[in-house]
Amino acid sequence: MNDPTAPAPEQQPRTPRTRRARRGAAAAAALAVSAAALATMLPAVAADHRAAADPAAEPGAAQEDARELVRNRWFERHTTTEWSKNFSIYLVDFHPDRRTSLTSWRTGVKEGAPAHPVTLYRQARDPRYGDIPMPQGAPYSAKIVDLNGFGAQGYVEQDVPTQKGQRYTLTYWLGYDVYSGTGVATMAAQASAIDRGSGDTLHAKTTKIYNSGKLGNGQNNNPGWKQASLTFTADSGTTTIRIQDQTGPVQSKPTGHVGTTGANITGVSVRAGSNGPSPTPTP
Question: How far apart (Å, rounded) are the C-alpha atoms in residues 92 and 103?
Fold first, then answer.
């Protein structure tokens, strides 16, 4: 029989040892909670750090595909100067002084003024004019390259790793120039695969795009995206892919400048095999 005079368990006197034990248990529990919270926060902190360090780590940035050989295929990463606004788009003409550049890409001029090889476009996100339609599969942060910067029949090129004897497919989205008042109905671009060591052209192909509903000044054109492709067999461990304007230079009557408009491209891809990615354009 229990002694009725004995204190209940919760009424047992607290010795210094039991108080220290309880304080230690409470501290351990608090530490465990803090550690769990820290573990939850670390991935977000790391992501924020990556976003600050890498301009491509913006919302909607494209995810890397292990099969993809082209880097920065949507032209999301770049160094630019001040952007100018043209209704639905912002644009910046590139210069050879490296104040403007496309990450992983080189720019150049086939014909015309070397100072402005290409122009980079991005969405203005202006509700008054609406967004420029983009190809299906394009990330939110995708940009457009106008291959005719200003007075130049320009190009972009990149070296990709290849294996001699292996067949590859180069694809890209080709569009009519979105800049307002272009006044040219048919535009074209030429894709080339060039052996990096010898300089020999492995294959080249020109693709045209026609816009029968071209608009005048003050309105942006619909690119009417179509996917162009080129297959080639590599001759060494490095192949240069190049896409250049085949539209101009074109005389612009209002300004007298030559080469103010050219074909637009985005979403460049190179993959091993005879078939590349083949999404359909957004209606």
Answer: 15
Asked if residue 159 and residue 27 are part of one domain, the reply reads no
Beta bridge pairs of residue 156? 107, 243
Same domain, yes or no: 100 and 221? yes
Where in the sequence is the domain holding 262, given as residue range(s)? 78-272
In a domain, residue 89? The reply is: yes
Q: Is the distance from CB of 187 to CB of 168 less than 8 angstroms? A: no
Q: Are 276 and 170 in contact (CB under 8 A)?
A: yes
The model's confidence at residue 61, banded by pLDDT at 50, 70 and 90, is: low
pLDDT at residue 174 greater than cutoff 80? yes
CA gap 267, 228 in Å, rounded: 11
Residue matched to tokens 């029989």: 1
What pLDDT, on the 0 to 100 scale, is given for residue 58?
47
- Give pLDDT tens digits for 77-114: 999 877 888 888 888 888 766 678 899 999 998 877 77
**Beta-carbon count within 10 A of 48 CB:** 11
pTM above 0.90, yes or no: no
* Cα–Cα distance measured from residue 139 to residue 202, given in angstroms and rounded to the nearest whole number: 31
Length of the chain: 283
90 in any annotated domain: yes
Residue 244: band (very low, low, confident or very high) from pLDDT cuts 50, 70, 90: very high
| Judgement on whether residues 135 and 190 belong to the same structural domain of the protein | yes
Cα distance from N-terminal residue to C-terminal residue, the chain: 88
CB–CB of 83/90 below 8 Å?
yes
Nearest to 133 by CA among 27, 211, 37: 211
Name 146's bridge partners: 119, 264
